[in-house]
Design brief:
Layout (H helix, E strand, L loop, with lengths): L5 E3 L5 E2 L7 E6 L5 H8 L10 E3 L5 E3 L6 E2 L13 H4 E6 L13 H18 L6 E3 H4 L13 H5 L19 H11 L6 H12 L10 H11 L8
Parallel strand pairs: 1-5, 3-7, 3-8, 4-7
Antiparallel strand pairs: 2-6, 4-5
Helix pairs in contact: 6-8
């Protein structure tokens, strides 16, 4: 990749893609150290992998070639796609996660992630609405990259959708209407509370309670408009 130093650390855990690449899925590793996460992602018995891993010091490791299907998303769904692994590039960001002392991601990690996402997004023509978190595609199972992840840093460079903040209007949907709109936006709403929680974690991280309220309705309506208006 032009301008990015990538360290190769091949994983045997990959297969054939069955779909064209249309998504980027961001994860945290959720383990006590980057070394432990890297070892697990390369362990043939673990049956998990990702295309890239970003250490806390900003080093980028390539585990699986982009043309191959890495095993990072598990059971997942986004915008009509159920084989998310086949359609996505998976990026693991080293962070202990909620189980081991969740903390903000480092400036070095974000400094490495931004150009990596930019290059992948441009290379495959991925829309910003398809740059998502693991919790977005698997809301009933996952919380990562979590409420401390700086989505705004990506959104201000048009690498992800912004959080709508301007000209918000409450559409007044009943809860069932909100769930239909959330499904239209892309989420699996089989578990309604989990879906709302994942939506809040991504677009309103300061209050995550799984309850539909006016602010959630306003944000979702704005996201469904042709040009979501963010902070910048």
């Amino acid at each position: 990749m032009d301008g990015l130093e990538i360290l190769d650390a091949p994983s045997p855990n990959h297969g054939e893609r069955l779909l064209p690449i249309s998504m980027i899925v961001l994860h945290y590793t959720g383990m006590e150290s980057g070394a432990a996460a890297l070892a697990r992602l390369r362990d043939p018995d673990a049956q998990v992998s990702a295309h890239y891993l970003i250490e806390e010091d900003g080093r980028i490791f390539r585990l699986v070639a982009e043309e191959r299907r890495a095993w990072h998303a598990g059971r997942a769904h986004w915008r009509g796609i159920s084989d998310v692994n086949s359609a996505s590039i998976g990026i693991e960001i080293v962070n202990p996660g909620h189980a081991f002392g969740y903390r903000p991601f480092t400036p070095e990690q974000m400094g490495a992630l931004i150009p990596l996402v930019a290059e992948i997004k441009a290379r495959h023509g991925i829309t910003r609405g398809n740059v998502v978190g693991h919790s977005d595609v698997a809301p009933a199972r996952k919380q990562d990259p979590g409420e401390l992840f700086n989505w705004h840093a990506l959104a201000r460079l048009r690498l992800a959708l912004p959080r709508p903040t301007r000209n918000l209007v409450d559409p007044g949907w009943p809860d069932g209407g909100f769930m239909l709109a959330l499904e239209r936006f892309g989420y699996d709403v089989t578990d309604p509370v989990a879906a709302v929680t994942a939506f809040q974690r991504r677009f309103r991280p300061e209050m995550i309670d799984g309850e539909i309220d006016m602010e959630c309705r306003c944000i979702l309506l704005a996201l469904l408009l042709p040009k979501p208006q963010g902070e910048d």
